[in-house]
Specification:
Order of helices and strands: HHH
Helix content: over 70%
Number of strands: 0
Low-confidence stretches: none
Shape: elongated
Oligomer: single chain
Structural class: mainly alpha
Strand content: under 5%
Largest sheet: none
Radius of gyration: 17 Å
């Protein structure tokens, strides 16, 4: 969920507040696990399911990254 404007405004007034990257490490772990699982499916011979999984997971990860 998107951050509200008041917290953004507070952070601008407090220069000592650390910047926090939303979903940095978790996003990378989820993307790597999904890609490995779909690559395993493709290697086992289920190419269609692996390709659909990669496509669907890329859309989900894109929406997660933009905060939707």
């Amino acid at each position: 969920m998107a951050e509200d404007d008041f917290r953004r405004w507070e952070r601008e007034l407090d220069p000592g507040a650390p910047e926090k990257a939303p979903g940095g490490r978790g996003l990378v772990v989820a993307a790597a696990a999904t890609a490995a699982g779909c690559a395993l499916l493709i290697a086992l011979g289920d190419v269609r399911l692996g390709a659909v999984g990669l496509g669907l997971s890329s859309v989900i990860l894109l929406l997660w990254r933009i905060g939707f």
